[in-house]
Amino acid sequence: MPQTVITIATKGQGLYEFTGEVADFVQACGVSEGLLTVFVRHTSASLIIQENADTDVQRDLREFFHRLVPPSSDPSMRWIVHTQEGPDDMPAHIKATLTQVSLGVPVVDGRMALGTWQGIYLFEHRDRPHRREVVLHLGS
């Protein structure tokens, strides 16, 4: 069963689309039907499938999660105990818990069965740049 690891370099909090890299992997596998699993190997980043036509969607999602889970330096978050890795760390873990670390995408006729405006994104929840590893596995 085909499998690979891709690395996504982030520049801080935000959404990083990598649909094209995943589509290239699926095509190279030569599998006509199966299930693609996408898994991020980190606890402070996550994966989402979201609209990729209007960048306002990504901006609004970032803002929503910032309002929902602000940095631990925010007075509303003074209950947080895990602060040794910075004010963005524990909120990053919470955001990753609220989203997903793995996705399942059907493969039909050798292509991902994504909708017209759907893209696959790494959702970086930390402030500083990181290199995130994502495992792709295609089962037939």
Textual characterization of the structure:
- With 140 residues, the protein is of the alpha+beta class.
- The protein has one domain: Jelly Rolls (Sandwich).
- Helices cover 25% and strands 36% of the residues.
- It is built from three helices and eight strands, in the order E-E-H-E-E-H-H-E-E-E-E.
- The strands form two sheets. The protein has a five-stranded antiparallel beta sheet with strand order 1-8-3-5-6, covered by helices on one side. Strands 2-7-4 form a three-stranded antiparallel beta sheet, sandwiched between helices.
- A hairpin with a 2-residue loop joins strand 5 and strand 6.
- The longest helix has 14 residues.
Helix content: 25-40%
Shape: elongated
**SSE-based structural type:** alpha+beta
Count of discrete alpha- or pi-helical segments spanning 4 or more residues:
3
Number of strands: 8
CATH architecture: Sandwich
Largest sheet: 5 strands, antiparallel
For this structure, what is the CATH class? Mainly Beta
Q: Uncertain segments of ≥5 residues (pLDDT<50)? A: none
Taken as a percent bin, the fraction of beta residues is 35-45%
Q: Structurally, how many domains make up the residues?
A: 1
List the strand order in the largest sheet: 1-8-3-5-6
Provide the gyration radius in Å.
Answer: 16 Å
At the fourth level of CATH, the homologous superfamily is YjbQ-like
What is the fold named in CATH at topology level? Jelly Rolls
The topology string of helices and strands comes to EEHEEHHEEEE
Gap between N and C termini: 7 Å
Task: Give average pLDDT, whole number.
Answer: 96
